[in-house]
Amino acid sequence: MNNIITIMKKELTRFFTDKKMVFTSIIMPGLMIYIIYSLMGGFIQDMVTTDEDYKYKISAVNMPEAIESMFAEQNVELKKTGPVDIDDTKAEIKSEKADVLVVFPEDFDEAVSEYDVQSGEKAPEIEIYYNSATTNSANAQMLITTTLDAYENSLSNKFDVNCDEKHDLNDGADFSEKMVFAMIPMLLMTLISSGCVAIGPDFIAGEKERGTIATLLVTPVKRGALAVGKIISMLIIAVLCAISSGLGLILSLPKLMGDAEIFKNTSLSAAQYALFFVVILSSACVLIAFVAVLSAQANTVKEAGTSVAPFNILIMVLSVAGGYTGGEKLSKFVNLIPVFNGSRCMSDMLLGVKDSFALSVTIGSNILYAIVMIFILTKMFSSEKIMFSK
Amino acid sequence: METILEAKDLKKIYSLSKKQQKLEKSGIKKKTAVDDLSFEAYKGEVFALLGPNGAGKTTTLRIISTLIKPTSGDCIVDGVSIAEQPEEVRKKIGFLTSELKLEDYFTPNYLFDFFSKLHGVSDEDREKRKEKLFKTFGIDEFAEVKVANLSTGMKQKTSIAVSLAHDPDIIIFDEPTNGLDVITAKVVTDFLIQLRDEGKTIIVSTHIFSLVEKIADRVGIIINGKMVLCDSLKEVVKEKTLEDVFFDVYVKEVGSDE
Ligand SMILES: Nc1ncnc2c1ncn2[C@@H]1O[C@H](COP(=O)(O)OP(=O)(O)O)[C@@H](O)[C@H]1O
Ligand SMILES: [Mg+2]
Prior knowledge:
heterodimer, A: 2 domains, B: alpha/beta, 10 helices, binds adenosine-5'-diphosphate, binds magnesium ion
């Protein structure tokens, strides 16, 4: 145990007193992400911003005069349709040709005036259909809801507005939302893995190449202590790299997304943040242990770099796939796939899906993989073929 | 005389990698580097393994330092078996070779402390040892200079100091003067004699006759992994010079092979 700490101290001293190393592997990634995303954000904002003169295309069925007049001064193109057109209009909203459909019950005014709040009966209901995938539709829906709210207040709550997720005509996934929620885990994963890849080859293969590992091996230190000390030091650096990248990401997100609706809906509790971090940490453990094994097997830093490189692509693919399948029902076993599982869990959490079984499988299996790889690394440190290959 | 190290029938067969097989040309898959080698070292002596390149000296010393495992045989170091308790053996020995490198990034001072900790040396003992060893090797004024900026000789001397931080009773030194300039080489050989005079047991390997003549109490001549002669230096050089004795046994050994 003492030896593990001594080794970690040395590794971390080596790393943190080297300003160049700290800058390139910890400060740079975060800074780069911040700069790139901020720039990209400005670009996207320009594309997404709706022009001021846009008139929301609202179709209404049985809309009473009183309410119709409320929209008169708004930027609205009101189209009155009959109940027979409802399905057509919904299709239009899906295909983004129309923005919102408001359906009032027949004789709405009468129903409202007859309705007694005390009676406990159902109030007259208004249905609003929209498509959350388009900004215009979402904004139009907000406009109507707030207008109706104001009207409702003046009538002392005599009707209900139905506008929940079932009225969202965006089928299944909201693409832009999913994009972002898939992107965040993917980015975090790839950032951690690039951190691992940046430091991994030098940490063990470098020591073999320079002949300094043998100096350690003639001390009474247990091979296992050496493996663990190395891996924890690498992990600390990789996690710092991930944190820096994460900070860059979080700080640049407002610029990237503007004040997109989705982030207002996503608020993680402290416990969820902690879980989020545990998922990242467990994934980082797997990645770093894996890179450590590859590094130990190589004889030179260059060789280690070459053997790690192909896995970058695999890690990218797995993390993208995990991010995109977040929130979707898949076999529970998919959470046994490293990287994929972490990415998927993060995406789940961002989407508000709670699946503690999947979470436990993910964290558990990742820790297990890491332990197995530490064991392999220990064996490698004891193997003369690997440590003293000519 | 008290035996402190006893190598018993050490054998090391390397299985050659594809690359090594090509280099060997003959296409053999296995190489016997050490072949049933036995010898003893007595407490407080300098024992020299003398042999040409490729004789199996480095392999032998790596086996008794527990860096590699013998294919068969065992070695008892101060009562501890290398096969059974390698970590215990490593506590008792200091293994030195020019192949053991120090990390460029650190200073001799830092590295001395680091290796002392790994050896479990107390802070008090460490400071005493450090003062003594740094003085012996003239490392004092370079104690805070990064290894990368030290001269080759200073690097080697630092490496020796660091490897002896735990004050081992048995010192195993593979080719002590290899790659050293004459001045550093003298510092090192003088130091080995000084250690012997302090009661330490020293086992060196070399292909240099003069070094054996200068420092060894006993000598073992190793050829093709076999110990062909093992006796006190005085006995060996009674009638002929060490060089002559060596070539006699060499011709006998290699000649009988062909
Ligand atoms: N790791 C290894 N793999 C295969 N063969 C080796 C290895 N190490 C040494 N050998 C071979 O074993 C023999 C003895 O080598 P070595 O112990 O280094 O001799 P010496 O130190 O006396 O020069 C040589 O033929 C060498 O090529
Ligand atoms: Mg040698």
